[in-house]
Write a structure and sequence with these properties.
The complex is a heterodimer of chains A (about 600) and B (about 150). Chain A has 23 helices and 19 strands. Chain A is α/β, with parallel strands linked by helices and about 600 residues long. The chains are: A alpha/beta (about 600), B alpha+beta (about 150).
Amino acid sequence: MKTIYVCYGTGCKAGGGGPISDKFAALCRDNEVRVKRTGCHGLCQEGPLVHISPDEITYTKVKVEDVQEIVEKTIRNNEVVERLLYIDKAQKKRVKSKNDWSFCSKQKRVVLKEVGEIDPQKIEDYLQAGGYKALKKALEIGSQQILQEVNDSGLRGRGGGGFHTGRKWNSVAKATGEQKFVLCNGDEGDPGAFMDRSIMEGNPHLVLEGMAIAAVAVGASRGYVYVRNEYPMAVEHLQMAIDSAEGKGYLGQNILGSGFNLKIEIKRGAGAFVCGESSALMRSIEGKIGQPNEKHIHASDKGVFESPTLLNNVETYANVPTIILGGGKAYAATGTKKSPGTKVFSLVGKVVNTGLIEVEMGVSLREIIFDIGGGIKNGRKFKAVQTGGPSGGCLTADHLDVKIDFDTLIEYGSMMGSGGMIIMDEFDCMVEVARYFTGFLIEESCGRCTPCRDGLLQVYKILDRISKGEGKMEDLDTLEEFGQYLESSALCGLGKSAANPFLSTLKYFRHEFVEHIEQKFCRAGVCKELSTFVIDEEKCKSCGMCAKVCSFGAIQVDGKKYSIDQSKCMKCRACLEACKFGAVSIAGRQ
Amino acid sequence: MDEILSRYKKPSDVIAVLQDTQEKFSYLSEENLRKISQHYQISYAYLHSIVTFYKAFSLVKKGKNVIRVCDGTACHIKGSVKILEELHRLLGINPGQTTADEMFSVETVACLGVCAIAPVMLINDKYYGNLQMGEISGIVESYKKQESEK
């Protein structure tokens, strides 16, 4: 029997995943074919993706119009529709199955194993894949043994900080209180990150099972999943999962006849980045303003509703069933010694292959960017990789061989964060990147402590000035000084780390800051006041592409000679992006 | 409004109440906020501070079609600013504003979480990924046309 897996992750859904699966279902009404709407397959940029088993054929960029042909050829006659196969640039050929894509070569899917395989709306799919077996085992072995396994596994929090999960669970288990809570942080606010979204959308039961095991371990009978407002499908799938799990006795009262109860509810965020911070998240669940508290009171004693509370991130919980089934020691043997296991990343920006990946800890940046990501788009030069969102920083070409884990990233001035990995090329300006993140943080600062609320505003003003060519060399010292103040005096983790984006860019790309200040030149052509675009006559082949893409009529043609009318140029960089011969170059302020 | 109030019992659910109200009416009117305040015994001032703290809430009425331009890191380096400039050229409004005919509102959002197909914008609940500058005017036109056909 053939199964058609149609990707219904948000990326593929945007490209038409819904109508595609509907049409497959309409054309394959017989019992010989199953059509499944699944979560994210990973390579979102090539979506919508359709995978067919047991043939192991993966089609990319599928349109509704292609469905008929796929059914006639592949489903009915076992033929491959060549034109829909993915062209693997590294292998220089079309590749039949996603299993053989270079994109998948160095990946290890543990958390994402069933994402893309199962229909997240059907609990039967999850059960068939071995779902809730870990919960059953957890109920049998009991709290002490669960805590031991999680402790042995060495699992560290996937939300960013990398705190030892076993230790956290232990302290909540020891806490006294009539009512304890387990919370799941699905407020994935880092821009450029969508790992947790894909897990919640593609395999919601896995997260719930992890939470339920945690609840058994710490003795909690209530739980909340806090999900970002921007993730409607995650909310929908989680709610369906909670309802069906309660229906089958995996959640709710007297779970699997054990006498153990757990009620899990969903709380939707309302568009505040700071609510990803633990204490702010708890205030938000209580229906209050999401402002962080001082950390002298531990959530394990007094968390949400003043009760002992365990809070973990989506991906952390998603690792738990594997640990319980396979044993903590076996888990600890994977990844690196101090950061066991795998990590899911969203690989985005200027790489050839963008999407969702999962790799074993200890893999190098080079392997991720060049082997999995296929290198930089359009043959350009790699400049930087940003990790850790607004709390992280940028690493450079010098760091490509760094083996990634929680500690190495911090050592080099960035951090793991939740797993966003944004690749930048030579046409990205690092002053602008610093300005962007600082601007983001000003918007998102909760306003409670002065260093974050007012200090960041001053930092932004300086960065803005530099990007406009009005900076002074002493500004750079001021930035460093402000960075130190933030680290030492901001109230919450987000404020303390808010300096990372500008400190790390300043550390590794100081020459770009200096160029902006002294030469009034933005080498990436991003800062409008500091760049002009000119056409190099020798490189120009008079193809006319630049004139075609220019919306402002700024390209002048004199016979075969092309040039840019600076009075009309809006510096949108369309010509720069479009020129295949590298004939458009960037000059400083004129 | 009464139906929404009946859905939630506890004052700690007030954010969900505000979300449902916003979804239904596209903004939070003073009248509705007063009702919520009375129903859950939360002071109007505190309720107001919740509304202004969270970005998802709006005190002003939005246009029929809400265009949300993602300004996450991936979208930012792939040209989200240019999308906003193009929308300004087409509609004459900046983020946070609504056109005079109340047809469109433009907003930026911190990250829509579909970074692999950046740059992205969301119109109502439809995502437009891998956006090319040249496409935007056609997309906006299609919404205008839909509206005029109604």
